[in-house]
Amino acid sequence: MIRINLLGVPKAKKAKRQAISIGVGGVNTMAAGLVIAALFAGGNYFYYYKLNSTTEQLQKDLDSAKRENARLAGVKAKYQEREKQFQLYDRRVKVIHQLQAAQNGPSDLLNTVATTVNNTDAVWLDSMTEDANNINLNGTAISANAVANLITNLKKSNYFKSVEIKETYQDASVKDMQAFTFTLVCEKQKS
After folding, report:
1. Which candidate in 82, 131, 134, 182 could, as Cys together with 168 as Cys, close a disulfide (CB 3.0–4.6 Å)?
2. pTM for this model (two decimals)
3. 101 and 178 fall within a common domain
4. 109 and 126 both lie in a single domain
């Protein structure tokens, strides 16, 4: 069956259908636009909320870090103060040790000279003086050999770098026996 419509009414229906379909399409487009706008607004709100939450967390972390920094600054100040005290005490201890080492020097010298003179026969010391790096010994001996033995014993003590006789002479004031007065110059070893 074939139909032929000569009246053209169906065309009007067709136009009416297009208007309705445009209207229905507009409603769908408007609803889709509203849905998209709502999704966009929801996404923006979610993004804003997330950024705001991150900002608050970072601010809390920053405040916590500032408190920790202030606490550590106090600890650092205490540490530096204690370090200064330690260095002061350390210097004092070093000075004390140096003084103790220097204190032993004269007693070692006296012990060395006393032992050497006691081990040498017929020698007596009258005086001992120190100037710079030298020790001057003045004394009396019964013979010139006793003075030579004293010089040898002082060299063997390894406390002196060199021992030289400055002068020796026979003392005429002693009438009962032969006596020699001597002066020795002893150069100390470098420490």
Report:
1. 182
2. 0.48
3. no
4. no
* Residue after which a domain boundary falls, among 85, 119, 153: 119
Count of structural domains within the chain: 2
Residue 163: give the domain boundaries: 121-188
Q: Residue 133: which CATH number?
A: 3.30.1360.100
What is Dmax (Cα atoms) for the chain?
A: 183
With respect to residue 65, please indicate whether it lies within any of the assigned structural domains.
yes
Half-sphere exposure of 62 (CA within 13 A, CB side): 6
Claim to verify: residue 53 and residue 98 sit in the same structural domain: yes
Identify whether residues 105 and 80 lie together within a single domain: yes
Pairwise CA distance, residues 157 & 108, whole Å? 11
